UniProtKB/TrEMBL annotation:
This is NADPH:quinone reductase-like Zn-dependent oxidoreductase. InterPro entries: ADH-like_N, ER, GroES-like_sf, NAD(P)-bd_dom_sf, Zn-ADH-like_protein. It comes from the Bacteria. CDD domains: MDR4. GO terms for molecular function: oxidoreductase activity. Residues 9-306 form the Enoyl reductase (ER) domain.
Amino acid sequence: MRALIVDRSVPGGLRVGEVPEPVPAPGEALVRVTATSLNYGEVKHGIEGAEEGTVLGWDAAGVVVEAAADGSGPAVGTPVVTLGEGGGWAELRAVRTGWIGVAPEHADPGAISTVPVAAGTALHALHRIGPTLGRRILVTGATGGVGRYAVQLARLGGAHVIASTGDPAKHGEALRALGAHEVVAGPALADGGLDGVLDMVGGPQLVEAFDRLGAGGTLVAVGHSTGEGESFPFGAMFSGPGRDDRSIVTFMLLFRPGLDRDLTWLAQRVADGTLSPEITWRGGWDEASEAVDALLGRRLHGKAVLDLA
């Protein structure tokens, strides 16, 4: 079967090649992939660290062509969205049924393929904060794939949403259209007393964002795009009036329970227009290097989609 395989001798580190078809385990379904979305983390670190010839890819949408032998998961012919540790950049993918969401029949596979990592991460990060109705929530790195879904989901959940971006003049209008009530140029410019922060950036911005939390507030460390560590000044962890019981939490999406249910719900919301997939680049197999270059150069705000059919 055809697949995008790691080959660091070519631009972008990927080329179309032939690989053996996957053999699903009893709890896995075989899915014919029609679209996949690219994520900065897999492009940046996956291509750098993988063995030559590896098939990467976390996100993929398609149709079940072989149901799981153990009877779990969707039947043959079901349109689905899938999440996995790799294998999404290929014509066929074997994937655990617990990592499969059912997509509506009429859904655009390209739009649905943006759901697993970006929307799934945003949803579970908001779950870690707790109830969002009436809460003040800051989203840093709000123009990225996860950030844009986080803004929409937080607003959908009834939060007062503050979006942080390095260029509010350029991105402010778009972020407000997605649901942001305020757009700021950095966490330090957000009013204090926040109930929650979804931080996509890490480094100094995470430190600044933690300082804006109010009592009982939670910062969910989602992304680390700066590549920098976090150095907290003396006193940053002190408690006191308005600063008591603050926390920093992390999670791994693949370890979260109920992913099949959540992927199904998110796919439905994208298909019915409640959530925008924010696709800002779309192309075919042979154009993958263009998308990789745009992602690594931070010129792509939103999601990049490859149509494989």
